[in-house]
Prior knowledge:
Layout: E1 2-7, E2 12-15, E3 18-19, H1 24-34, E4 38-42, H2 43-48, E5 59-63, E6 75-77, H3 80-87, E7 95-99, H4 101-107, E8 113-119, E9 127-128, E10 138-143, E11 147-149, E12 152-161
Amino acid sequence: MNIIVAVDANWGIGKDGDLLVSIPADKKFFRQETMGKVVVMGRKTLESLPGGRPLPGRVNVVLSRDPEYAPKDTLVAHNEEELDKILAEYDKEDVYVIGGGSIYKLLLSRCSLAHVTKIDRAYEADTWFPNLDEDPEWEITGISDEQTYFDITYHFVRYERKNK
């Protein structure tokens, strides 16, 4: 499985249920990576998407403890066992965990590849992603040249789990 995330300088990913910053090139990268694939997210992440609707052109899997939760055009798993049954139908290489914070933490140990947009600025955040730079199980295997969007600089960084 893969993880895809944008983090600030402190590995913050969100505040008040929204992204810290919106960078068009990051959105384009996200779309290119996930189009035609399976995206796994929590309920709050689904509800934060435009119109609270699933991402078009992808299989949307939502993890929610609420047994009544059944949004249109999504597959819903209420626990990890149900999630495993759903994901067994797909190639692991085509599965992308897209958030939020609790879903990232829950599923990071199952992932072997992380696409991280690292923003060189600290924002006020209330949700964080685990710092892969401090995790000995992960190593950087690719990094883009410095990118800029107005006064924001960032890099696209590829991490791979060692001994996967």
